[in-house]
């Protein structure tokens, strides 16, 4: 029982990071109807940017904010300079998805060129080795900080989407683009902001993952795929679904790793994707987009 | 009767709109809409009425291929839909264009997007006064409204943009006669308050009951035009569109009137 609680809590902590990655994917899927395969690489680029800033002796807070902005700018530049022209030329959905794959490969190359391929440890203000005991559960400072930061990010993002005018415009634009256009809502700008926010949430996850893993150009590959699984689990077009999906996946992973075998920990995400697609393609909280004439 | 003193608000000269660069939907069509009147475009299924409104609203990319659309003396063809909207042309599409997952209140709020003037609140009251049914439904998701209520919401939201030209596509579609009448009465009130309306309709009788001037459109062309009274008294219109005379229904293929006129 004690073990169970321990796995549950560590699962929630790592799962909350999957939730952040998943939200980024869902935001883009909802508003553009495409899967963003560059999400992980944008996150990596942002995290590396923080690493450079830290190496140049900037404080962690400044570096983190700069990394968020950097990631957001890459995503917005991609939207404005590549995706919009492609859409203007009637690119198909698949074509647009391939463009995101291309962006991912380019960023990978750039990160390898500028950051090197050697794994490096990421200086982080929270430690993995300071451990707090809460009842029977022990939690590292880093896990606790991770949980707090990602839940806070999710909550702030929820407030933004549900309670602000910008969020209202985002919801309107993703639901019915032509209607939003004919109401004079600046849909391009709104969509660009969605790209920026999605990337920013990804970079938050990257910043908290980097100290636990080691920083190398491919360190986001696995979390990206897990976030992807979480998004599918949640239904791919539901924000609450993405959050719940991430948490469930994190917990399931921790339990499998603890009770079954650590070897299965990573396969689990893909088993989840396959099962969801076979059994309940609309995900846990998802609802098929209603086809509109 | 259209008053020749009235200024022209929208002038369309020989526009051609194509789908996939080869299917002609509009064939050199011209028409004019004058300020503060109701103009109706009538025609059978597939005549190109929706295409016409979408072309004006800028929703068909790079269309019209040829021809000009002038709004208040300014050329607006091939502008982005946001730009057309910002000039004061508001389009209520056939499917009503609501944000179905958002509430009635949110839909209305989005209608006020970009407005900073102080009259937003009084406009909101005015609009709710026009459609009192919406008042009690403000927290309800738009998709849970009945068809008639959805149409009212769509028109209400359009009005909040203070349109210079309100374009409505088949407002009576799918509505019971009584509900359709209510919507039409509202349109008449809106027109009396000074908004120019361009109305597209298959239900000719209903449209001609409020319109000042009408165009009959078939296969992407205007085949007949005239004041509402002239059209209602026209034999061919009576036969093909109003269901009087020998035949009852409007021509299914939509070339009857066109063919007939060519024979003369
Ligand atoms: N997206 C499209 N792609 C290809 N062809 C289209 C498209 N939309 C309309 N058309 C064609 O253009 C022609 C005009 O269609 P449109 O929808 O404008 O007619 P309509 O007068 O509005 O008809 P209805 O009364 O049924 O609404 C039709 O022949 C239709 O098949
Ligand atoms: Mg139509």
UniProtKB/TrEMBL annotation, chain A:
GO MF assignments: transmembrane transporter activity
Cell membrane listed as a keyword: yes
Cellular component GO terms held in the UniProt record: plasma membrane
An annotated GO BP: amino acid transport
Record key words, sorted: Amino-acid transport, Cell membrane, Membrane, Transmembrane, Transmembrane helix, Transport
Membrane-related topology note: Multi-pass membrane protein
Pfam families reported in the protein's UniProt record: BPD_transp_2
Main subcellular location of this protein, as a coarse class: membrane
Transmembrane spans: 6-27, 60-82, 94-114, 134-161, 190-215, 227-252, 259-279
Cellular compartment(s): Cell membrane
Family, as annotated: Belongs to the binding-protein-dependent transport system permease family. LivHM subfamily.
Protein name per Swiss-Prot or TrEMBL: Branched-chain amino acid ABC transporter permease
Species this chain originates from: Desulfomonile tiedjei
TrEMBL record, chain B:
Biological process annotations from GO: L-amino acid transport
Family matches, as CDD domains: ABC_TM1139_LivF_branched
Domain of life: Bacteria
A Gene Ontology molecular function term of the record: ATP binding
Signal peptide: none
Protein keywords: Amino-acid transport, ATP-binding, Nucleotide-binding, Transport
InterPro entries, sorted: AAA+_ATPase, ABC_transporter-like_ATP-bd, ABC_transporter-like_CS, BCAA_Transport_ATP-bd_LivF, P-loop_NTPase
One Pfam family this sequence matches: ABC_tran
Domain ABC transporter, chain residue ranges per copy: 10-244
Family of this protein: Belongs to the ABC transporter superfamily.
Protein known as: ABC transporter ATP-binding protein
């Amino acid at each position: 029982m004690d073990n169970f609680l321990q796995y549950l809590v560590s699962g929630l902590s790592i799962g909350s990071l999957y939730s952040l990655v998943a939200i980024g994917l869902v935001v883009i899927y909802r508003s553009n109807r495409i899967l963003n395969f560059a999400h992980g690489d944008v996150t990596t680029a942002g995290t590396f940017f923080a690493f450079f800033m830290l190496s140049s002796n900037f404080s962690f807070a400044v570096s983190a904010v700069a990394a968020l902005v950097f990631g957001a700018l890459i995503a917005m530049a991609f939207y404005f300079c590549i995706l919009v022209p492609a859409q203007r030329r009637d690119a198909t959905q698949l074509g647009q998805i391939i463009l995101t794959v291309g962006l991912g490969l380019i960023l990978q190359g750039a990160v390898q060129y500028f950051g090197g391929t050697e794994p490096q440890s990421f200086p982080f203000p929270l430690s993995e080795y300071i451990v707090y005991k809460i009842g029977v559960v022990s939690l590292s400072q880093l896990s606790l900080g991770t949980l707090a930061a990602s839940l806070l990010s999710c909550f702030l993002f929820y407030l933004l989407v549900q309670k602000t005018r910008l969020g209202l415009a985002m919801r309107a634009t993703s639901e019915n683009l032509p209607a939003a256009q004919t109401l004079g809502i600046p849909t391009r700008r709104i969509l660009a902001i969605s790209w920026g926010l999605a990337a920013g949430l990804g970079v938050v996850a990257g910043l908290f993952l980097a100290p636990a893993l080691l920083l190398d150009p491919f360190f986001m590959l696995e979390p990206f795929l897990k976030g992807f699984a979480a998004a599918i689990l949640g239904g791919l077009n539901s924000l609450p679904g993405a959050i719940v999906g991430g948490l469930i996946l994190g917990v399931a992973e921790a339990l499998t790793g603890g009770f079954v075998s650590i070897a299965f920990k990573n396969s689990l995400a893909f088993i989840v994707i396959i099962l969801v697609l076979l059994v309940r393609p609309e995900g846990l909280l998802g609802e098929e987009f209603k086809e509109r004439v | 009767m259209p008053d020749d003193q009235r200024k022209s608000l929208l002038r369309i000269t020989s526009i051609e709109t194509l789908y996939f660069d080869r299917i002609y939907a509009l064939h050199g069509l011209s028409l004019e809409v004058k300020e503060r009147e109701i103009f109706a475009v009538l025609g059978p299924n597939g005549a190109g009425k929706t295409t016409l409104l979408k072309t004006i609203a800028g929703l068909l990319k790079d269309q019209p291929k040829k021809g000009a659309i002038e709004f208040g003396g300014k050329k607006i063809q091939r502008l982005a839909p946001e730009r057309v909207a910002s000039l004061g042309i508001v389009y209520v599409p056939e499917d009503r264009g609501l944000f179905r997952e958002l509430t009635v209140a949110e839909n209305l709020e989005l209608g006020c997007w970009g407005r900073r003037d102080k009259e937003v609140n009084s406009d909101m009251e005015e609009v709710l006064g026009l459609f009192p049914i919406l008042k009690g439904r403000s927290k309800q998701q738009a998709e849970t409204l009945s068809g008639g209520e959805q149409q009212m919401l769509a028109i209400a939201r359009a009005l909040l943009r203070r349109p210079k030209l309100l374009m409505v596509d088949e407002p009576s579609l799918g509505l019971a006669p009584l509900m359709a009448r209510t919507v039409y009465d509202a349109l008449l009130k809106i027109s009396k308050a000074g908004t120019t309306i361009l109305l597209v309709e298959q239900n000719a009788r209903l449209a001609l009951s409020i319109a000042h001037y009408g165009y009959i459109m078939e296969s992407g062309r205007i085949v007949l035009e005239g004041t509402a009274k002239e059209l209602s008294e026209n034999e061919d219109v009576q036969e093909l569109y109003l269901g009087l005379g020998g035949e009852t229904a409007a021509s299914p293929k939509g070339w009857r009137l066109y063919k007939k006129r060519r024979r003369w």
